[in-house]
């Protein structure tokens, strides 16, 4: 089975102990429903595996995957740290009362305002990405008479694709300082001259939706090669090694991710080897899972509408959402699995394709899916929409954004309201029409 949920006596899909059909009656559709106990379970799989290994660690939730006040409250409660990439994400974290010392700021084009906000709020760490930021940050720190811990984001020349890794020499990436061409070392040297900035270690992030550990192991080796050189040349000791996110999850039955702790075990094992090889102290390890914390914990509930059977070609079933609440299929042909939530136990008798309702033929959620007989007004539940679903949602065709519900142990709570039409025009201003000849 490609999802962690079950069905009740009425044959309805249950999420977080709550009947999803009841939820659609209460909150409407499209609706994101998160099983909060699964968020906790995923978070603990990472945190506890580090604990068991006796390794100091921070598990920083990449909040771009799904950021809201309620979500960040749960992340805080589960002792996660937090990655933010913008003032909006930082603002949300502050509103949620997230401990500032566990917030890290990322981004390949951090603005003066973003860096200033991070400095003013004393966040834990800034991940420096480019030379421009070094100057900007040192100016801002001087102005505020403060210091800041930073990691240097480096590109190790490893591109992880779901099942294979490409070793490149000079990496062609908009993120980070390249290791191979010496720019990372040049940045490090520059930073040695700036007293207000403390380079506590290195960061790399090799990709997303990765199912194997080899890429991470290669990245650890590459980082230690560099740290070995910097130890010799500058007597540098890295306190922190941040190995990024990208841990794969199951979207369809074809995906076979490792248990989350398995990624941690592989990282810890390789760091241990390298530490011995180079005669270094074991650093604190940071990781940055986004998708692996929330991805499999939510479903999106839609109501089915028009059904178009084109004989000998295909049967289209349209739902009341689409690329506005789940951009991933249109953006990169992402695959999803789903079930008719009000007939979750019924035998599968036909094959249909699920269409969104936007004016784009690319707005398809699922191609060729097996279903029981679908009728107008059924509820479709798409699995594994917890990451990069709501967070990428948009206003194309002026559809209001969906609502989000948290369900846990049989109780449900609205945590993001459905947008209203007034919300859609809230920032619109009328044009002062004058007679123009
Ligand atoms: C996107 C991103 C992550 C999270 O990626 P997931 O695939 O959601 O785990 C972590 N770190 C960085 C730097 C990222 O850009």
UniProtKB/TrEMBL annotation:
InterPro entries, per database record: Ala_racemase/Decarboxylase_C, DAP_deCOOHase_LysA, De-COase2_C, De-COase2_CS, De-COase2_N, Orn/DAP/Arg_de-COase, PLP-binding_barrel
Reactions this protein catalyses: meso-2,6-diaminopimelate + H(+) = L-lysine + CO2
Gene3D superfamilies per UniProt: Alanine racemase, Lyase, Ornithine Decarboxylase, Chain A, domain 1
Protein name: Diaminopimelate decarboxylase
Protein's GO biological process: lysine biosynthetic process via diaminopimelate
Organism: Sediminibacillus halophilus
Active site (catalytic residues): 359 (proton donor)
EC number from the UniProt entry: 4.1.1.20
Pathway in which this enzyme or protein is active: Amino-acid biosynthesis; L-lysine biosynthesis via DAP pathway; L-lysine from DL-2,6-diaminopimelate: step 1/1
Pfam families: Orn_Arg_deC_N (PF02784), Orn_DAP_Arg_deC (PF00278)
Subunit note: Homodimer.
Amino-acid biosynthesis among keywords: yes
